């Protein structure tokens, strides 16, 4: 009994142990909770206590980057970006300067050196032979160019170029002689490094041109395309990397441009400023900025691209790439190119078969050529090249299907006939082969090239197709924008006007910019119409794109009304300041001062307008354009003799340009108009007729010729010309009125 009692008594020690363990668990849990709370608070404080808002990133130089990013640095060294520009020292100069000579249209250039200094003796800006020291070199493969300082910071590209493949000197413009008074002479504006080259061959470029002293006080942080040219100024990134924080900054991320995100836009817009044909909108672009806040991309203009969008002039990739299906599917530059070495990521067709099925595409049943041959290479068919600067082939990045049938229709080049050049291997022959291999169902008929070609010619039947093309999603934004531009400038119908006005609301900045062309030089027929258009355009004054805002402000400044509200008037003032800032940043350019002169003239400030036009002439005396603007301004003030002198000189310059570019219809038209203003009517008729022959679908050209015939009382020619005008635009009431008026004048007695 006693034993049982003892057995049933609680074990006091066990109870104490359990209580002790429970207390320990609680203390441990509380400790963990306290630790996690303190840690969480600390982490929250660490995350929250980032850099202050408004921190300005500055450039730190590539050596700072190399300290951590040694692998990337090794890839970048000796790349085209590293060798984009360097000092003229034995380390970088590739050309033969051992007293070598090169003659070009009677001008001899001599290349020499004295120790580690290099010189080119050639024709100078005054037409006399002089010696110029080579200060910098540009490029490494397949050519190298040389730069000289002509004083006051004006750097020019010397006329001789070194072919690094053939080891020879040559002229980049081998077929044409340019005198010192020509802008294409090596001392002229077209060969000025400060404006034409520097921004894309240096890092952190600032032009800093002073108009008053005609001095370039330029600066750059590095002489080459260095790390921060693509990633943006690195000071914030370095500060964050050196901090003890566990996080990147909540305001600035890791302090650089986000080039690897799911959206390819940031990376493409980091590359685009230097790999596109564009004009400046505003200075100071960094990879952290949006492209359209600083640049306006050129559309598929007839002097830049063939009608089907293939490259013609040197357009630097991006405009071509935006036409491609790859662009629309989110492919970016670094899918094919190593971002640091710039080399292709894979050799040959492996580059393409990383995405495209090898068994389907890298086989004779697809390319119909011997395996391993040139014709079997993807890029030869889908990225044909064109050679610029004599020795530099550039591939077309629109990545298109070869269309020899378009060569037959439009005269455009095609990949097949770049290799197949025998007499019987015609575009028709190539087109039949393509149809035999693939059938005709694969074609996009009509190809947008056919539509744009008809639109460029102003053919009436193209209008409906262009309108449809503006809504087509299976083409790039540059194609839609070009279609809008053609409707805006060539088709003055209610249907086209609706499309243009609708395009002002497009989500694509390029399309909105193109639509604004429809209001260029527009003259309202009534105050009510002016008010309506003013209200429509005023919405663009607060557009998200600086490029659109600036263009809207420029156009509104030429209208005879102000925006309807005080808010819009303030927005107009702000946008005009942005527009002027962009022009002043390129104060060394004649075009900037012409645009400023036009702006001031529109605002009624004739004194400032005259000053800007005269500055434009002073900067580039051999460039046609500013004298016409100044002559018109002076004529309005009754200064007719001065105006006539200016127009006479302008006619000389335009005649020179028209001779150099005889197939340029606009040049012929401008020259003909100038002859008319000078009273040289027979020359005006001849030149305007040539403009009409070159561009028979231009109603503007034909109208001017018709009115000139009327002035000469050449009724037969005038009536024939107005009939042609009405064939172009049968429903145009103005043209019908002109014909009626001509008929009455030609037969005043009703005979």
TrEMBL record:
What are the start and end residues of each TPR repeat? 590-623, 665-698, 699-732
Superkingdom is Bacteria
- What are the Doubled CXXCH motif domain coordinates in residue numbering? 329-359
Name the SUPFAM superfamilies on file.
ARM repeat, Multiheme cytochromes, TPR-like
Q: Where are the transmembrane segments?
A: 28-48
Checking InterPro entries in the record gives: ARM-like, ARM-type_fold, Cyt_c-552/4, Multihaem_cyt_sf, Multiheme_Cytochr_ET, Paired_CXXCH_1, TPR-4, TPR-like_helical_dom_sf
**What keywords are assigned to this protein?**
Membrane, Repeat, Signal, TPR repeat, Transmembrane, Transmembrane helix
User: What is the protein's name according to its record?
Assistant: Photosystem I assembly protein Ycf3
